[in-house]
Predict the 3D structure of the following.
Amino acid sequence: MPELPDVQVFKEYLDATSLHQVIREVEIFRRDILGGVSSRSLKRRLKGKRLESTWRHGKFLFVRIGDDDDDADDDGWLVLHFGMTGLLEYSKSKNPPEHTRLLLHFEDGAHLAYICMRLLGLVDWTNDAERFVQDKELGIDALGEDLDFEQFSELIGAKQAAVKSALMDQETIAGLGNVYVDEILFQARVHPKTRAARLSEKQLREIFQQLRRVLKAAIRARAQPKRMPKSFLLYRRGENGAKCPRCGSPFQSTKVSGRTSYFCSRCQQP
DNA sequence: TTCCATGTTCCGCA
DNA sequence: TTGCGGAACATGGA
């Protein structure tokens, strides 16, 4: 489920397994997932270099690539986006996992696989991660230090769209997707189809608070639903006949700008 | 067989 | 011109 919490977990996983390793060989199995960079150019930029640090913005993960030379001309960032089905897997086994699209072999014999079954992800290269974010017109990171309530309220409260669409718009706030927006709105007891501009200040405050609380709890749970609090919609999302942990009424589903949305029709009144 | 799925992008319509 | 909603994209599982 690659939304902000999932990508944060991938970041921490990469940090723990692959940071400071030297890339011995690079395999690209599908060019479909490449952005502006060519297969040949990406290989040249990665081979012999080291994974120096990582940075996440919204659902994008950036990996700083460098080497020991003082000449930093070739240095830059490997860009990873996970689409709907992407993930990372570090391993020492011989065969890469199924649906591996990019494989980094390290000098110690292990490798890091970028797996993306549905090919909706992205692998790219940039010299300047912040400029990449600007060019993509991504909004402020949902867990960014500088996102305070005042700014949140200005960004979201101005929208005529359904609050769910407003929260999912990556150009407004980056990192939230279908699943976690449902969770935030459930915790805040706000119906997903409520027009953002019609939210009361109290509701906006509640959504802002729950946004931080939900994302942080999800990261602590390593983005695994069954490790999350039982009071979470996510804990039982998709289960047949799942009931609201607060009031016991069955969850309803509806479509909001094309995405399936789960909510409790009793706790989340329109 | 048909429908659905956590992602973004693009097109048409106010 | 801008904001919004829906379809398309690729693939596999129910």
